From TrEMBL:
This is Uncharacterized protein. It comes from uncultured Rubrobacteraceae bacterium.
Length: 103
């Protein structure tokens, strides 16, 4: 998705993640919010909300999304978001995380 912008926020419970994902879906149009996913992070049993916005979405709308997700979620750095997604989809931990845990 060329020109798109992804946000990732981690939540301690599935209920919180689903609530915030529903709120994003309610507040943003399909043209603004291209992808909305929830992942379970296997190594800590937290949940990750990934929201991908179209490139033309104004900065103020992105700030609205960050504020909503940041109410009870913790922002995930873009590189970490990719690692989390790979680990969730592929079933393995990223190399840096395996090393951290001594694996």
């Amino acid at each position: 998705m060329a020109g798109s912008h992804s946000l990732g926020y981690e939540f301690v419970s599935e209920e919180e993640a689903r609530y915030h994902a529903r709120e994003l879906d309610r507040r943003f149009t399909r043209e603004e919010l291209l992808v909305l996913r929830i992942y379970r992070i296997r190594w800590n049993d937290n949940y990750l909300v990934e929201a991908t916005f179209a490139g033309g979405v104004p900065a103020s709308r992105m700030d609205d999304a960050r504020a909503l997700l940041g109410e009870s979620g913790v922002a995930v750095h873009a590189e970490d978001l990719e690692d989390y997604k790979r680990a969730t989809e592929g079933g393995t931990l990223p190399g840096w995380l395996r090393r951290f845990f001594g694996g």
